[in-house]
Amino acid sequence: MQYVIKALRGNEGLTELLLEAADAADAEVQAILQGYSVVAIKARKQWAAFLPRKKSGFPLVLFSQELGALLNAGLPLLGSLETLAEKEEQPEIRKVLTQVISLLYEGHTLSYALEQSPRDFPALYVATVRASEKTGSLTEVLSRYVKYQTQVELVKRKIVHSSIYPVILAVAGALVVLFLMLVVVPRFSHIYEDLGSDLPLMSRLMMHSGLFLEAHLPFILALLVMAAAVIYYAVTNPASRAWLEQKLWSLPVIGKRLHLYQMARFYRSLGMLLQGGMTIVDALRLVSGLLQVSMRERLERTATSIREGHAISHAMEKHGLITPLALRLLRVGEQTGRMGEMMERIAAFYEDDMERWTDKFIRMFEPLLMACVGLVIGTIVVLMYFPIFELAGSIE
């Protein structure tokens, strides 16, 4: 479920957040972990859960690329933003840029100005900009965020593209089976009904099934529509999605891969923030929203251990947020002072492992799925035509 939270942080004024959480208490904990003092919480209207989520139309990656190019060319920050606003043709995007420019003219920092539009500038992006304001490396931070976002989208795209063909195959197979059972089999059943009981057992069962489906066709179609509506509701409702994700996490193989995918995003985000100049404790607090609820508790204990003076590698190993290979790389990072770089290497290793497993799984799953679909369709066709073959043999 989504919750609208009004909160304060430092001297930034009243801010409105939109968080997805299991309940109001979980939403409050997420806001507190991001450094906010919660003023009010209310659940988003339930009817909005039935609608598809509307993604922000603000082209954040393109904006970062263009802003970085203008800053590298020697333009000041305000001049660069004004240039981007002047050339922008879409009024919604120009409105966002105009608001940012107005806040900068009022004397606010860029991170504060971006934070006033949370739907267009996510908290991770604002945090990287805020860290760059302390180090004076805004162009480097922008290019690093573009690289980070490109890599994350690349991993998602590979997983989605690998899943397209099996999904199309499964849907096409299901539609063919439905067509055979609801249209073709009932027609053959009327033909075989005149032959009486002189049919093979499986063909008689197929005949009776066809007559049953034809007699109850409106009811069966209503059941299919209801099933589609239930599936749509389960996919769009946050509570049911959370329940489904919990079940997937409990599966031995799938749960391990989901954990690996989350850890890859976690370490890549953490590495980007550390390279941008943010402290490890602040970075851990900011990336907690990328992890599952049960893992956030472990992350909070990890941050507490680090504040108490323990090494990062020791704290993460103690609370189960690391693998043996990642532990070695973190220890190297602690010795060389290149923690951000090592965390990005860990993320790259996790992403490569995830990509290899996905390719291997798809290569094994596709032929099995094709065999299952072919077996089901072939069995239905053989059962329909088998009496005809027997009749032709008897005539001969």
List the topology elements.
Blueprint: E1 2-8, E2 14-20, H1 24-33, E3 37-43, H2 60-72, H3 77-87, H4 91-105, H5 110-115, H6 123-135, H7 138-193, H8 201-215, H9 217-236, H10 238-250, H11 252-275, H12 280-286, H13 293-307, H14 312-318, H15 324-336, H16 339-395
Antiparallel strand pairs: 1-2, 1-3
Helix pairs in contact: 2-3, 2-7, 3-4, 6-7, 7-8, 7-11, 7-16, 8-16, 9-10, 11-16, 12-13, 13-14, 14-15, 15-16
**Largest beta sheet, briefly?**
3 strands, antiparallel
How far apart, in Å, are the first and last alpha carbons?
69 Å
The CATH topology name of the largest domain reads Receptor-associated Protein
Helix content: over 70%
Order of helices and strands: EEHEHHHHHHHHHHHHHHH
Number of helices: 16
Report the radius of gyration as a whole number of Å. 29 Å
Beta-strand share of residues: 5-15%
- Give the uncertain stretches in residue-range form: 46-56
Total domain count: 3
Going by helix content, strand content and strand pairing, the class is mainly alpha
CATH architecture label name of the largest domain = Up-down Bundle
Number of strands: 3
Q: Largest sheet, order of strands side by side?
A: 2-1-3
- Would you identify the CATH H-level superfamily of the largest domain? Type II secretion system (T2SS), domain F
What is the highest CATH level, the class of the largest domain?
Answer: Mainly Alpha
Mean pLDDT: 79
